[in-house]
Amino acid sequence: MEYRALLLVLCLIIIIVCSIFLLLWPIKIAKKRQLETNIVNIIIVLSILSLFLWGITWLIALIMAYVYPTKAEVEDKRQRETTFIGGKDQEARNIDKLTQLAELHKQGLLTKEEFEAKKKQLLG
Q1: Which of 26, 74, 105, 122 is the most buried if burial means most Cβ atoms within 10 Å?
Q2: Is the pTM of this model over 0.90?
């Protein structure tokens, strides 16, 4: 009888340890992938809620941990978006300015020296 009770306790301990491991799995993945803090917090909440909602939210947390972009990917996207101002990046704006300066030079409103100095400034 004592043997069965000990075996039952051992099985319960194994089940609890495995459950904790599974509960923490999406959180570990999210942190290892270095997801943004707000996404990690959502994954933590969903993992905890899975204790009460039969694991549905745990599955959502696991998918989020694998699918959401990392901090580096988000930062790279933000940086690419900030280089575009008004739909054009810096190089395109410089080309537009150079075209305008060439037009002003053709019209005689800029001397050759002024045009060359501005051109050097824009391209330099």
Answers
A1: 26
A2: no
